Amino acid sequence: MRHPLLDGPLPRLDGRVALITGATRGIGHAVAIAMAKAGAHLILTGRTAGALEELDDTIKAATGRTEPSSLITLNLKHGDKIDALGPSLYQRFGKLDILVAAAGILGTLTPLGHLKTDVWTDALDINLTANMRLIRTLDPLLRLSDAGRAIFVTSGAASGSNAYWSSYAVSKAGLDALVRTYAAEIANTSVCANLLSPGPIRTAMRAKAFPGEDPLSLKTPDDIAPLFVAMADPARTENGRTYAVKTAAWV
Ligand SMILES: NC(=O)c1ccc[n+]([C@@H]2O[C@H](COP(=O)([O-])OP(=O)(O)OC[C@H]3O[C@@H](n4cnc5c(N)ncnc54)[C@H](OP(=O)(O)O)[C@@H]3O)[C@@H](O)[C@H]2O)c1
User: Fold this and answer.
1) Which residues lie below 8 Å from residue 114, measured CB to CB, with a gap of 6+?
2) What domains appear along the chain, each with residue ranges and CATH number?
3) Which of 20, 21, 27, 172 best tests ligand 1's pocket when mutated (most atoms within 8 Å of CB)?
4) 126: Cβ below 6 Å to ligand 1?
5) What's the angle, vertex CA 126, arms to CA 5 and CA 227, rounded to 5?
6) Nearest Cα residue to 32 out of 88, 66, 71
7) Which helix (H) or strand (E) holds 192?
8) What is the pLDDT of residues 154-192, one digit of tens each?
9) Tens digit of each residue's pLDDT (9 = 90 or more) over 37-81
């Protein structure tokens, strides 16, 4: 059974400008390649320039394009750098069509009684506050697109029902509320903001959370990347939704 988002053909994204956080690894990396294959011009962000350059080479090889992606070295802990994105991208592109906020950290799984304040703060900073700052600086650019699409990656852990996952769970629950609030604020615009809860995916984060699990039993980032392409479709007008990949059979 395919995910309902994949019922029709995938949209082309030619000429659309897409910014991706967490593009250096895991889900964001696969989404970058899928969106490039669909024709989007990519603004790739990540902490290390070398990883971004390698991804750009991979994209060129996968698509045959010679035009480089736009590479922005950005540590999402540096809030002032996030705040500067909107003005600088306005100068360069005049709009933003797609935002994929895939960057995230797991932090340390530990009983609340042992939780270090730094671990808590890092999860909130990167998984939640950075996304608030991204929305704040990029909202004007998304509104300048004919169909701005903002996509955020949440988790089943946001329910808060797993012992030891407090900082990650709270950061993702906060993200859910943040994105639904944003969606309510843009309800009468051409911008849509939605969440994707990918289920267990074979990445470094998943391996850290479940070290005893056989990674080969999991879906890969490439398996779910088409869902992001579908969610970026200018013709799709859902807003404020969470798309959950509930079973491995859905992609
Ligand atoms: N994998 C799963 O099963 C699963 C399930 C539910 C939700 N998710 C969510 O999916 C998203 C992607 O996770 P993943 O599994 O692909 O994880 P991953 O393989 O660990 O990749 C995480 C990405 O986030 C980036 N990142 C981390 N800290 C950063 C910082 N301070 N500044 C900028 N970038 C930073 C990493 O960059 P570096 O390369 O520089 O470290 C990397 O590109 C996350 O939001 C995660 O919570 C994943």
Assistant:
1) none
2) 4-250 (3.40.50.720)
3) 27
4) yes
5) 10
6) 71
7) strand 192-197
8) 999 999 999 999 999 999 999 999 999 999 999 999 999
9) 999 999 999 999 999 999 999 999 999 999 999 999 999 999 999
